[in-house]
Amino acid sequence: MTLPLHFRFSQASLADYVDCQRRFQLRYLLEQAWPAVESEPLLERERLAELGRRFHRLIQQHVEGLSVEILTASIGEPELARWWQSYLDSLDRTLRDLPAQRRAEVAISIPLKSYRLTAHFDLIARDDDRAVIVDWKTEHRQPAREQLRQRLQTRVYRYVLTVAQQRPPGTVSMIYWFAQYPDLLVALPYDAAQHADDHQFLSELITEIEQRATQEGEWAKTPDERKCAYCVYRSLCDRGVYAGTSEPDEEDFDLVTRINIEQIDAIEY
């Protein structure tokens, strides 16, 4: 078993590997179909995931110029309507200082090692002086600032945009905006030291995965079985068939709602 040379890494695939090597092996190398949930399906989680996708689509259409009136009229669910109004209100408050040039739902791919690394951005706002990545979050929990700073998503997104646009790291930053907490932004600036650290970390992680792929046998399962509660492969690993009943953390929520960016055409640099 080897890693295909055309393989595209992403925040999603790297997070899968960090969370559980076996999950990465099943999903990306063996391309194992997700088993059907044998017991209670994740109906509430799936409902929130679908609302989240629709919320992202509303913002994309708004950024592309569709009128607020038309978009608002298309909303039926009270929860989605509340998120949407929070977004509109934030444009005049917490988000008012974003650069004027804005693109929503764009994927960018850069070379790293012998592969490509792709990031799918909810929003990039930029001008000649700075570029701001905005990521919309619709889950109920708000992770701590340090947790967000260390997340693979943060490290991959800021690194990819800096390399792709050949910007000084100090001109790039990332904002997490929470629909449940619209007046509180988590802004994460970037600098040259963080960029160098991210380059080393991501390069070494990809090298580790590449070397692991040359070895035979089943990859290691996560020792933290809490991460199995929302994993679609849990029955294959004898880690249970029942869906998790507690509120998942940020990473587990992403596991359920994660967009499969490997299937999205990316702008290559």
Offer a quick outline of the entry.
This protein is an alpha/beta fold and 269 residues long. It has helices spanning 11-19, 21-29, 43-63, 68-73, 78-90, 145-150, 152-164, 192-212, 250-257; strands spanning 8-10, 101-112, 115-126, 131-137, 172-178, 181-189, 267-268.
Question: Any overview of this molecule?
Answer:
Strands 1, 2, 3, 4, 5, 6 and 7 form a seven-stranded mixed sheet that branches. The protein has 269 residues and is an alpha/beta fold. It starts with 7 loop residues before the first strand and ends with a strand. A hairpin with a 4-residue loop joins strand 3 and strand 4 (131-137). The protein has nine helices and seven strands; from the N terminus they run E-H-H-H-H-H-E-E-E-H-H-E-E-H-H-E. Helices cover 39% and strands 19% of the residues. Helix 1 (11-19) packs across helix 2, helix 1 runs antiparallel to helix 7 (152-164) and helix 3 (43-63) runs parallel beside helix 5 (78-90). It has a single domain, classed as Lambda Exonuclease, Chain A (Alpha-Beta Complex). Mean pLDDT is 87; it is low at 245-249 and 255-262.
The major pleated sheet works out as: 7 strands, mixed
Q: Give the helices and strands as they follow along the chain.
A: EHHHHHEEEHHEEHHE
User: Per CATH, what is the topology?
Assistant: Lambda Exonuclease, Chain A
Which range does the strand content fall in? 15-25%
Mean pLDDT: 87
The number of helices is: 9
The counted number of beta strands is 7
Low-confidence stretches: 245-249, 255-262
CATH class: Alpha Beta
CATH architecture: Alpha-Beta Complex
| Fraction in helix | 25-40%
Cα shape: globular
